[in-house]
Amino acid sequence: MADQTSQLIEQVRAAADAGRTLAIQGGGTKAFMGRAIEGDHEVLSLAEHNGIVSYQPVELVMTARAGTSLTELKAALAEQNQMLAFEPPVFSDASTLGGTLATNQSGPGRPWWGSVRDHVLGVRLINGKAEHLRFGGQVMKNVAGYDVSRMQAGAFGGLGVMSEISLKVLPKPAMQRTLVTECTEAEALKLMNQRAGEPKPITAATWYEGKLYTRLAGAASAVEAAAKAWGGSDLDDADLFWSTLANQQHEFFNTEQPIWRLSINSKTPELNLEGTKLVDWGGAQRWYAGEFDWEQMVSIAKLSGGQVSLYRGGNRNAEVLHPQAQPIQALQQRLKASFDPSGVFNPGRAYSWL
Asked: Which residue, 161, 225, 293, 332, shows the most beta carbons closer than 10 Å to its own?
């Protein structure tokens, strides 16, 4: 365990006083996300600011420093048969909690178990004035400052340096089974939406190359009853399949082509896009690998009731996150000015105008 709070505050203060900008970095495993940070900058590293501050298994609450590795968190939780239910991708042992929240990363169970944003209880944050602030708390019933804590999800570090994060954790389910059904994408989308509306313990639904994978998790009786009702063959090494998918080590991600992520209405029919595809989140997340036009993808996302991002590859100097309406853009700029008045943190990482 290492508490580097004082050093981090001093580095922020010095940068603000000198008019320099800072690139916030944890383990560096998510450097491919977002835009390239604009201008000359120095790195503010959280790699040594790590360690679990408190863990209360009975209360289902854990607090850790932002530079703590996900591997360490998951190991501590596994000893108590608990888990991070938002299934964050672990790209390597260097992947950190802070980076996961900053980039808003959640795994295959997100529609049923919630996103990283849903599991945040509180954060401690160093703002652009080098003030160390606390938002939220360390218990689930404490909602003071809750929205500010959640605003860190997907902010790409633009609002400040997270020093500590408190999360709710959950027990691992008593039983899990994964059913495999051979079907087309159109058939899978229909089946996913139908199953999502049934009172069954579904916790993931993914389609790839002619196969629908449906994960059931919960009490043994409920899982067995759902499996009997839905049918399909059981997947061997199901845990490996879902962890590989969550960690984005699935063969779909093994490509040099740009990867696009669409978060859209789950009932949107099959999209007329050429290229490799993977459907996740019960149809609400569509991954595509290929050279597509940015404006075309934005238009498709809007018509499908959602948003698109150029997740990996392509031109990282252009916009890579879905355009925001003018009122939302103005609100985000006001928030940035409030938390980071001198524009110290990660300039342009999320949007060129932020």
From this structure: 161
Tell me how long the chain is.
354
CB 312 within 8 A of CB 32: yes
pLDDT under 50: residue ranges of the chain: 145-146
Residues facing residue 133 across a β-bridge: 125
User: Pick from 292, 300, 211, 285: which is nearest to 248 by CA?
Assistant: 285
| Helix (H) or strand (E) segment spanning residue 338 | helix 326-339
Pairwise CA distance, residues 197 & 85, whole Å: 21
Q: What is the pLDDT of residue 147?
A: 83
**13: which 2 tokens?**
């203060």
Quote the CA–CA distance of 53 and 55 in Å, as a whole number.
7
**Roughly how many angstroms between the first and final C-alpha of the chain, as a whole number?**
34
CA-wise closest residue to 245 among 273, 203, 274: 203
Q: Are 271 and 290 in contact (CB under 8 A)?
A: no
Encoding tokens for residue 175? 């039983």
Going through 187-321 in order, the beta strands assigned E by DSSP cover 202-208, 211-218, 233-234, 259-263, 276-280, 285-289, 307-312
Residue-wise pLDDT for 2-38, tens only, equals 999 999 999 999 999 999 999 999 999 999 999 999 8
> What b/e sequence results for 151-176 when a residue is b if at least 16 CB atoms lie within 10 Å of its CB, and e otherwise?
bbbbbbbbbbbbbbbbbbbeeebebb
Q: What letter represents residue 198's amino acid?
A: E
How far, rounded to the nearest angstrom, does the alpha carbon of residue 186 sit from its chain's CA centroid?
27
The architecture that CATH gives domain 5-171+329-339 is: 2-Layer Sandwich (3.30)
Interatomic CA distance for residues 244 and 240, integer angstroms: 6
What 3 state SS string does 23-78 have? Answer: EEECCCCCCCCCCCCCCCCEEEECCCCECEEEEECCCCEEEEECCCEHHHHHHHHH
Helices assigned H by DSSP within 52-184: 70-78, 97-102, 110-113, 116-119, 146-151
**Cα–Cα separations (whole angstroms), residue 146 to 119, 135, 162, 164, 165:** 11, 7, 14, 14, 12
**Which residue shows structure tokens 């019960």?**
282
- Non-local (6+) Cβ contacts of 322 within 8 A are 298, 301, 307, 308, 309
Structure tokens that stand for 224 in this block: 């067995």
